[in-house]
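Internal ticket - ligand job 152, zinc ion:
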Amino acid sequence: MASDLTNRVLLKSQDRMTKGAYFLGIELGAPLRLSGAVFGGICLESGLYLYCGSAYGPGGLDARINRHLKRRKKLRWHVDRLTTRGRVRFVGRVPEGRECALVSQFSALSKSSFPVPGFGSSDCKVCPSHLIKVDAEVLGPFLAQMTMVEYF
Ligand SMILES: [Zn+2]
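stdout (structure tokens):
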């Protein structure tokens, strides 16, 4: 994991109620074996993953992202298994954006893959999944061009 992806804050959202799409950069320091009826037994190798989602409900992006950042929570979404076991290293916000457009962008990067078909995309008929495994070195320069990315 490139250290320049950590501890940098480029821009923090000022508008607390902004709605739109977001992505989480989640680092798994160790392999993670998924549980549950759908993905049980699938093992994610260690490395960097992107999860793309959207928040158009009350509270907007901030409420959703704050929940993702919580380490202790009742497991509700597929991605909760990663955010509770791995570490969220950065979050990107795209006001008025759509998560499937983000998935399309990130999956076009070299060395990107969809390790778990259907993960996080139960409601989506377009994307292989909303979880993408990415190469940190490929992603770094791409992220540097984006505004509204917070690093942790
Ligand atoms: Zn999608």
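Auto-summary: DSSP finds four helices and seven strands in the chain. The beta strands are 20-28, 32-33, 43-44, 47-55, 87-95, 131-134, 149-151.
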